Amino acid sequence: MHGRAAHERSMSIEKRKSVAIIGAGASGLMAAWHAASGGARVTLFEKQRMPGRKVRATGNGRCNITNRNIDVSFYHGRNPQFVRNIFGRFGLDDTVSFFRRIGIPLVELEAGRLYPASLQASTVTQIFEYELEKLKVDIRLQRKIERIDPLDGALRLTTAGLEEEDFDAVILAAGGCAYPQLGASRSGYDLAAALGHTVHEPFPAILPVNITLKALHRLEGIKRDCSVSVMRSGRLADRSTGELLFTKYGISGPAALGISRTVNESIGAGEIPEIAIDFFPDTDADELDTLLAELWSEGGRPVSLSLCGLLRDRLCDTLLRIADVDPIAPVRGLSTDQRKVIAGVFKDLRLHPGAARSFNEAVVAAGGIDVGEVHAATLESKRVPNLHITGELLDIDGDSGGYNLQFAWSTGALAGTAASS
Ligand SMILES: Cc1cc2nc3c(=O)[nH]c(=O)nc-3n(C[C@H](O)[C@H](O)[C@H](O)COP(=O)(O)OP(=O)(O)OC[C@H]3O[C@@H](n4cnc5c(N)ncnc54)[C@H](O)[C@@H]3O)c2cc1C
Asked: What does the alpha-carbon distance between residue 319 and residue 345 come to, in Å, rounded to a whole number?
């Protein structure tokens, strides 16, 4: 009785849910794998010519997949606690096991950062492509979704080429608008906003910072380990310690990238914060005073020469000029006030940021879709049934170090699993 078996088989095929995923980036690839593994018929739409274009560029081509120290304190947005509910359901261990299962063992490098052992980001997209093909996911490249229309529980997608197709569930995994050179755009925010979602205006994070003080631009090319603080209304709002790279417009390097989110958030709120650089983060103010007194014990030396054992010459001369001190004047001519000003510039140089630099340099877009409008367990929209929203599109952004990809993997896995059931 092949007829009955065939009928049951065709019934079970019919009962399989159809799931569409918009965007073959980190969260979309993860969602596709989980939805297809959960038994759904999955179609993955990607507007670019290849899947995972941004993933291939992550971690300087090595893909910093996640971080051993995952914790809510590395996340930002209006409600960072939201990530607790996500990682409680699909967290670090699930991610490490998942990648191992698909053939990507991870290795730990500096500061808990985990990478594929191959140290090659393209490994990740290559293996996802193989896995999704095996799971019979229909990957449609160069298909930009322009509209999502709810109809009687199902959702209709319309592509830029005006093709229409209906699905039982849709996962919006279109990413944020950081790094448009890799194809990122505002498309995901626009699709969500058209369905009534609240989109908090995205702003660039993890990028260099413009500094208005022109004298500082003379330091272009110099690197130094510093501590950089952000003061908002006189209060410490953020601090980052590490290598600072001076540029022709301001500051870059890990220490600057680390405070850029707080700086840009303040600027967006109409408040220009103060930035304070400590060039001697490992020496407290009293120790520095003692050291300077020692260096200044010989009154005949030019000031710059007295300090050249402490700071490289271009940095020293520039900081002296900022302190309004002539570098070639003899030490004995320094007044007590000038000595204090020099020590202050070394320990606590106050600066103002210029306008935020563009999304072209930003690793991540902060802001995005309000997380109060999605269920944490499933990422399903509270506004539009059967629509799930993942990854950077949501109003959550992480620090540098694998935190953004971890959020993308976790939300993708939860949404894919939920959409297929
Ligand atoms: C240079 C760089 C390096 C980075 N390195 C790291 C790192 O090492 N570790 C880390 O944790 N994070 C890193 N990040 C951040 C991380 O890559 C992102 O946060 C993450 O990729 C976001 O995943 P996502 O799925 O939300 O979006 P994405 O990975 O950006 O994917 C979204 C996809 O959706 C497609 N799309 C958009 N709109 C549509 C549409 N309408 N129709 C069809 N397709 C559409 C896009 O083309 C894209 O492929 C880096 C970012 C950059 C720019």
From this structure: 7
